[in-house]
Amino acid sequence: MSNKKTKKNLTVRLGGVVCTLRRARTTLLVGILIMKAQYIEEASKVITDTHILINMVSRRVRQLNAGSRPLIDAGVSVGLADVALLEIAQGKIVLAELLVDAA
To answer: Is 31:12 a contact under the CB 8 Å cutoff?
Structure first.
């Protein structure tokens, strides 16, 4: 018998994207990815078009990197993309089209 440890892959679905992780990664990383998937699902309920959601998150991350303050209280370990997703999920950031339709 060989003493080698077999490495198994772990497949995680993030929104519509499937990611395969090597089993050598820590459980913490898997927990973080699952949490991000939860944020993606919450934001997808508000903005159903995936392309628009990606563009909104991307633009908001650029704003946060440039020094804008987050509109929510997020923990220290929460990444900027997660902050953007949570802001969208909580209705702090909305599409301009949604504002026009509401008026």
So the answer is: no
- For the domain made up of 9-102, the CATH class stated in words is alpha beta
d(CA 86, CA 38) in angstroms, rounded, equals: 10
**Radius of gyration of the chain measured on its C-alpha atoms:** 17
Give the residue among 43, 35, 42 at the shortest CA–CA distance from 95: 43
pTM, entire model: 0.65
Domain boundaries, the chain: 9-102
Q: Read off the pLDDT of residues 72-95 as tens digits, 9 standing for 90 and up.
A: 998 777 889 999 999 999 999 988
User: How far lies 70's CA from each of 36, 76, 95, 99, in Å?
Assistant: 17, 12, 17, 21
Enumerate the β-bridge partners of residue 21.
10
Residue 24 has pLDDT above 50, yes or no: no
